[in-house]
Design a protein that fits this description.
Elements lengths: L3 E6 L3 H16 L3 E2 L8 E6 L4 H20 L4 E6 H4 L3 H8 L5 E3 L7 H7 L3 E3 L22 E5 L1 E2 L10 H5 L3 E2 L2 H13 L4 E5 L16 H9 L6 E5 L8 H9 L6 E3 L7 H7 L5 H14 L4 E8 L6 H14 L3 E6 L17 H24 L5 E9 L7 E4 L5 E4 L9 E9 L3 E6 L3
Parallel strand pairs: 1-2, 1-3, 3-4, 4-5, 5-6, 7-10, 10-11, 12-13, 13-14, 17-19
Antiparallel strand pairs: 8-9, 15-16, 15-18, 16-17, 18-19
Helix pairs in contact: 8-9, 12-13
The protein binds S-adenosyl-L-homocysteine (SAH) and iron/sulfur cluster.
């Protein structure tokens, strides 16, 4: 009988993609995927170190896995990604979790197969990425999946004052256009209907390499892949948004009218201290330009509260902009001090209680905004990519609109895997409800 692999993902969509790559590699070694951790012979954990809370959660979980390991001899535990890649982390992690068999940094994915085959504990962590264009170590095996993540640019050259990502993922390196287009074509041929193009800042695509092909060009090319219905992309740095990108989204039918444009803060003083390279007025102008070209466009965002030195007045500016723009969705975070970053040394660290209280107010406002946004869609017809039965009511189907709103409606098995036109009838803060209309 085949051995089983269970993938546990923490962090962003790039970490999710890492997990899919490890799954493909484990399957290449004869494992089959299980969704039950207790059944697994191999667990691969992909990690995140962007905030301390993520780190604590992951370490707690890895600690619990020591019991899983003891329950059956021969079980293998592998831990990979950003947490392992942090400077000097490996020794510390090994001491804290001696039961982990395989440690892999961010640049050593292709070593996974060897370490697995060797069957004895090992680690591979390189300080920097290898020279030359980045290559994916294994083709994805997305059987039966409608959506897949595709990396287009790795690393980040931005050095936002709070952020540890450039320290762990290294400088920006773009994947050659041919490789990206080959992968999307292969995914479409295997039945994938939606791809998400990934990068810490997709708008920097090809810049470090000096390529003529920029992100707007790549997006159009991917959108023309036969068999692909939808293309998404994340993340766009607001400073690097271009009219050409907005035009590509407006003109290519397969490109979803959705921009994930992390605002981070609404106060110019804080934006400057964060080293974000734009002002609140500039951000607002970008949002307006998007909506002029694409009135239906969703703009979602990330916001940090309690950056060092953030006053009540600065925070009020974040609240004002959040209200003004009406984000379809916002991921909101308390500032977390990360060692090695510029902000870690700043004076004026905001007390935890103050951060928590600001986060609470911002989340309450965003819940109102998300609802207002969804209400504005009542009476409209939205194309929904139907993924399967609804989790809360198996008699109904569920899927996502082009703007990622989860939508639930009656339908039959033949609708699964199609792009269904759904008339939106009712919404709540999480879900939209509707009916398929074919005319
Ligand atoms: N490259 C993306 C996001 C990377 S991390 C971008 O430029 O937007 C995802 C989000 O985590 C960030 O947008 C930010 O809102 C948040 N984040 C990053 N570092 C953080 C820190 N030290 N504390 C709190 N939130 C942080
Ligand atoms: Fe971090 Fe800024 Fe790079 Fe995003 S753009 S990964 S927030 S440094």
């Amino acid at each position: 009988m085949n051995k089983k692999v269970y993938i546990q993902i923490y962090g962003c969509q790039m970490s999710e993609r890492d997990g899919a790559t490890f799954r493909a590699m484990a399957e290449g070694c004869g494992y089959v995927t299980t969704t039950e951790r207790e059944d697994a012979d191999l667990v691969v954990v992909t990690t995140c170190c962007v905030r301390e809370s993520a780190e604590n959660r992951i370490m707690g979980n890895i600690g619990h896995l020591s019991r899983w390991k003891r329950q059956k001899p021969g079980r293998i535990l592998a831990v990979a990604g950003c947490l392992v890649q942090q400077e000097g982390a490996l020794e510390r992690l090994r001491r804290r979790a001696p039961h982990v068999d395989i440690w892999l940094g961010a640049f050593e994915q292709e070593r996974f197969t060897d370490l697995l085959r060797e069957g004895k504990p090992g680690a591979a962590v390189a300080a920097a990425p290898p020279a030359g264009p980045p290559v994916e170590p294994a083709p994805l095996a997305e059987r039966g999946k409608l959506s897949a993540n595709v990396n287009i640019i790795y690393g980040c050259d931005n050095h936002c004052a709070y952020c540890v990502v450039p320290l762990v993922r290294g400088p920006e390196r773009s994947r050659p256009p041919r490789d990206v287009l080959e992968e999307t074509r292969r995914l479409a041929d295997s039945g994938v209907r939606e791809v998400v193009l990934l990068g810490q800042n997709v708008n920097s695509y090809g810049k470090a390499e000096g390529w003529r092909e920029d992100f707007a060009w790549l997006l159009r090319e991917v959108a023309r892949t036969p068999g692909l219905w939808r293309v998404r992309f994340t993340t766009s740095h607001p400073r690097d948004m271009t009219d050409a990108l907005i035009a590509a989204a407006a003109e290519e039918p397969a490109v979803c009218p959705h921009f994930h444009l992390p605002l981070q803060a609404g106060s110019d003083r804080i934006l400057r201290a964060m080293n974000r390279g734009y002002t609140a007025a500039y951000y607002l102008e970008q949002a307006r330009a998007i909506r002029r070209a694409l009135p239906e466009a969703r703009i979602s965002t990330d916001i940090i509260v309690g950056f060092p030195g953030e006053t009540e007045e600065d925070f009020a500016a974040t609240m004002d902009l959040t209200r003004e723009i009406c984000f379809s969705q916002a991921f909101t975070f308390m500032y977390s001090r990360r060692s090695g970053t510029a902000a870690a040394a700043l004076p004026g660290q905001v007390p935890r209680e103050v951060k928590r209280e600001r986060l609470r107010r911002l989340m309450a406002l965003q819940a109102e905004m998300s609802l207002a946004w969804r209400r504005s869609l009542v009476g409209s017809r939205q194309e929904v990519l139907v993924t399967g039965p609804s989790k809360s009511d198996a008699a109904l189907l569920s899927g996502q609109t082009a703007g990622r709103e989860i939508t639930v409606f009656p339908g039959g098995p033949a609708d699964v895997g199609t792009l269904a036109p759904v008339l939106i009838k009712e919404v709540n803060s999480w879900t939209m409800f509707g009916e398929i209309t074919r005319n």
